Amino acid sequence: MGVDLWTSAEVEVLKNKEVKVDIPRGEDPTLAIEAAKIVLEESGSDELGFFVKTSSTIPIGKGLKSSSAAANAITLAACKAVGLRLSLEEVVRLSIEASIRAGVTITGAFDDAYTSFFGGINITDNRSMKVMLRAGAPEELSVFILVPDEKVYTKSIDVEAFRKVRDFSMKAVELALSGRYWDAMTMNGLAVVAAMDFDPSPILNALRKGALGAGVSGTGPAIAAIASPKKAEEVSKALERHGVVIRCKPNNRVASWEIVK
Questions:
Q1: Do 130 and 143 lie in a common domain?
Q2: Average pLDDT of the residues in 123-140
């Protein structure tokens, strides 16, 4: 499900073959470079380059899809900067290819890329890159994200550990496809907790206080919980016992762009 945290990319066309990037200090520039390069390849230009600058409200390395959002933002801005006439779906596919080249995804992250671009609730088949279900996210609900200090990068994930909880994840898929999104979120979250050996207490405490659903975002370590307006404050306080909490809302808006002069 999309939330209203954001990432933006500003792209300037250079009259040489260089790709220069300005990203948050200490982060790997590979993704930004690959996203810029793949657009240049698609445009057929071998004379141009890009200067790319990004900014974001999404914490990095927390399982909150910061990489997919960044790849989308850079790819969209770069396509518009060189006048590439691609559909939005084609832009997302270029973004995914850039993420694969940069090594920031194991599966291709079609679910992450599609949802951070188009918003709403989406269930996808990442192997075939097809959307199995798409629905509007209830905008009256609140989303609470517990952001631990540690970071978990995709490159460090033990894929074998996730194979051991596959049955639970597949049951979560069945629940989601039947419209029981928050039950699916909770079941999948507990499966990820088991696979990654995370502390389950933030999820359980949020549920005790009335959260509609709670679980791990991506491969963590961030924990997300969904609450109705009546239960929002109680759920927030339950998570705040464990650390810093970001409060946001569901997002149904599609990624946008503009020319900056």
A1: no
A2: 94
Report pLDDT digits (tens) over 21-80: 998 776 788 999 999 999 999 998 878 999 999 999 998 878 788 889 999 999 999 999
| Same domain flag for 122 and 26 | yes
- Helix count (H) and strand count (E) of the chain? 9, 9
* Final residue in a domain of this structure, among 89, 115, 134: 134
User: d(Cα 172, Cα 200) in Å, to the nearest integer?
Assistant: 17
The residue behind tokens 């306080």 is: 237
What confidence category does residue 124 fall into, taking pLDDT thresholds of 50, 70 and 90?
A: very high
In the chain, pLDDT over 90 holds for what percent of residues? 73
> Cα separation of 73 and 50, whole Å?
14
Which of 200, 211, 217 minimizes the C-alpha distance to 237?
211
Q: What is the separation of C-alpha 178 from the centre of its chain, rounded to a whole number of angstroms?
A: 23
Q: Which domain holds residue 95?
A: 7-134
pLDDT band at 155 (very low <50, low <70, confident <90, very high): low
pLDDT at position 220 over 90: no
Specify whether the CB–CB gap between 155 and 39 falls below 8 A.
Answer: no
- Are residue 77 and residue 162 in the same domain, yes or no? no
Stronger pLDDT, 240 or 47, i.e. the higher one:
240
Contacts of range 13-19, beta carbons closer than 8 Å, 24 or more positions apart = 13/48, 13/49, 13/50, 13/81, 13/82, 14/48, 14/49, 14/50, 14/51, 15/47, 15/48, 15/49, 16/47, 16/48, 16/49, 17/46, 17/47, 17/48, 17/49, 18/49, 19/49, 19/50, 19/52
Q: What residues have CB less than 8 Å from 244, skipping those under 6 apart?
A: 146, 147
